[in-house]
Amino acid sequence: MELTGKNLIAGTLGGDGKSTFSAFNPVGGQKLKPIFVEATTDEADAALVKAVEASESLSRISDQVRADFLREVADRIMGIGAPLIERAMEETGLPEARLVGERGRTVGQIRLFADLVEEGSWVEARIDTADPERQPLPKPDLRRYLVPLGPVVVFGASNFPLAFSVAGGDTVSALAAGNPVVVKAHPAHPGTSELVARAIALAVEDCSMPAGTFSLLHGIGHEIGSYLVQHPSTCAVGFTGSLAGGRALFDLASQRPVPIPVYAEMGSTNPVFLLPNAVKTRGVEIAAGLHGSVTLGVGQFCTNPGLVVGMDSPSLDSFVDELAAITAKSEPGTMLHAGIRDAYEMRVEEVGRIKGVKMLAHSKRRTRKKDTQASAVVFEVSGEDFLASPRLAEEVFGPSTLLVRCDSVDELYAVAQRLEGHLTATLQATEADLTEYSRLLHILEGKVGRLLFNGFPTGVEVCPSMHHGGPYPATTDSRSTSVGTAAISRFARPICYQNFPQEALPAELQDQNSRRIWRLVNGRQTREDL
Amino acid sequence: MELTGKNLIAGTLGGDGKSTFSAFNPVGGQKLKPIFVEATTDEADAALVKAVEASESLSRISDQVRADFLREVADRIMGIGAPLIERAMEETGLPEARLVGERGRTVGQIRLFADLVEEGSWVEARIDTADPERQPLPKPDLRRYLVPLGPVVVFGASNFPLAFSVAGGDTVSALAAGNPVVVKAHPAHPGTSELVARAIALAVEDCSMPAGTFSLLHGIGHEIGSYLVQHPSTCAVGFTGSLAGGRALFDLASQRPVPIPVYAEMGSTNPVFLLPNAVKTRGVEIAAGLHGSVTLGVGQFCTNPGLVVGMDSPSLDSFVDELAAITAKSEPGTMLHAGIRDAYEMRVEEVGRIKGVKMLAHSKRRTRKKDTQASAVVFEVSGEDFLASPRLAEEVFGPSTLLVRCDSVDELYAVAQRLEGHLTATLQATEADLTEYSRLLHILEGKVGRLLFNGFPTGVEVCPSMHHGGPYPATTDSRSTSVGTAAISRFARPICYQNFPQEALPAELQDQNSRRIWRLVNGRQTREDL
What residue ranges define each of the domains in chain A, with the CATH number in brackets? Predict the structure, then answer.
């Protein structure tokens, strides 16, 4: 499949724009072919016009067809074969094994949503039957389920060129709920984006889905993104990226004449708390695990732990020695692009200059600048100095972490209290620690979306119980997740039918439960017919 | 119970402010005793400080205690007896039967939420068990459920002094989810608000709930409300009122450093579509029902139908004649306060001056200005003129309605397409009409939260299947309802525990399902233990 560098609008390639750009290989820095054409606002408008048309037809397409379509998307992505992995490697510098794994995660996720749509209970059907005899007023027949919101705009993320990009969680959960999707491709991997977009477009065609079900638009600046978010036909937005980027989109969306929801997953430092008994019994093991989690993907995951909080003790010293030793020996890695690498270096420098911060360790290996490499850094600061410098609590995107050494449990609680919203927090603890420091667990429950007992926050399982979200600034909407099947409800809203005849009701709400879905009927969960 | 005119902050009466105000009886217009003291920002801050304290304890209080507390609130409200109804009549001009009914609805709603909390499945528990052998990576144990958001600010509505006010749906769903609530009382019924607030405070005391679980603050201007919405401790806002008011709060909340959700239920004209066969067979009956729905509560419900759309025909003429005749004979009614009545009269005048609008009928009875009375009006306009004047689609709060006479089915569809978001839409139709005009149903599904087949939109059943919401500008969040048990999830967010030991998990997520709640365990709905 030859890359065209064009936008893909409802199945048709388009490149009317004058502004062009290229992708670069972060390893070596050379420019990659072809040249990509930024979408014009007319093209963005055309994509949304087609999306609105598709919305109307999508509501008449059966769930089975939608499930089959999602499976076809997965098959088509696998069908691209090696060229997809090769292009993604060139554009991101990520290693082959990681990208093969990420592709597996991506298609696995798509198939999981296909199963969810096919099973059908996600629509949260509820039925309350009539009671015409009720006094003082008769009770009507009421039936409620979820319907799609309408066209969704998704911004591809740079750090997962497959799993959080063109066919990533946001796109797939929006499609699964029955919405058309317009993706704004991340400009750092436009070729990977085009390959995946064309796979989706082929699946649209194969399954006779409406053409406007999917479009892909390229853009390097903010113009196209802002235009899409402000377009009156856009009904919701999915985004994974920086706090500044996510907040800007949220502000645009909130200030529209008709505000729309923005699901932005933004920064998180994913604090790890080291509790005394755990450090005493497993300090060395924790150091190795932590280093692995900090440097995974060259620290470019939203779940890398950028903050480690412990209490001063000889065991903590041994932990620190081990962490410093491993860090010194660690290999540099290629970051996604020069912009991210430069920002990382700047932030590392900035943190190092903050009062009370000392550099505990850094990789001794040579970092090749032309290969966009960065290497691991560990900082240390006292609890007191940490509490005095709010800037230290902010994310450094890359393989660095900051150890906060508290001199008392009260100081450790104070550090926890000071935290803003995060995706995760981890307790390295024994069961005895959990009991003794239960207050910490309680504080953290108010701060994060996912709590880990031991283990490390990198690695986000795709399943019904996953919650990948958290209070602001981790996300713009703590009530929703961007990973796992619960993501589907972000792109749907309830509608209620009062006293409708059976034939006019959607299948999910008819007396005969032909879909065999779970429904709440007169307050009782059941899969029975009425 | 003597009214104090003071604010009630975490169980303590307070009146530090210098600014005072009074309630007025809309019947006759006389000022009512006592004088009420506006809350100061210090008092508002104190209420939220106490609410934050309460948040922490609330999470350790069992659901059974919370359910008992809600039932005690209901009993305490009933325990006020006649003085509550009498004060509400004085402050709102609403008739006794209506207020007795509204009180029944209010306590019924509170008890319904108590049952919901006691049953427990509302937390949407999901469990995916570990698979340590999985390749290439072991699968962790993940368990997710809903936890409260934190302090919720609720604005009492003027039009339901009990059911959408101090102990109304917003307050009760927030309390049910485990959040403390700070109510900003509506200044038109401060005495009714104080009576209900003191009933809640007594229930807080009886059930040993934390004092900060509930506070009531008075205010006539925007200052206290704005302060509450912008306060860093506020986690969500519930509001029922005007579009201007709701949007102002939404804007404040979105522009905070940490944005928070605002559930504002705002204007709606609740269009009624008259389809040909229905008008032919039941025109006279529909006219009577429509008039009843337009004038119910002197047109001060959020669900009064302010727009009626039909197709030109002799049957429509008969319908119109009947509607005009009933309207001419209809009795004026007292509106809630002079501000609402004046706004109604102004809007009626404005609509009458818009191009193509003619007054079809108005009540011939004398309207007593000193009793804040208003009377019914019916306007008519052609489909063409309606489409040319967007202002005609906006709500007129009061007992008026506008008939749009379309000259073709295409024009009727165009009128439907032009609609913004509404709480409801009604189809006066036969089953044959539904089939013939299925496109109309399809258009309306994209515009509203509740669709009615015949009947009228006034009367909002409180039950699991109710959806009282709709796309903007009906509400600021089409994904949520302000009536019915589903409202509880507005004030909660998911949290996920990874690899936690049993004892550290909340009861809802332990292997042993001691609460016997419905849980999604490894993708399967069940009430069994693991």
Answer: 7-26+60-266+481-490 (3.40.605.10), 272-453 (3.40.309.10)
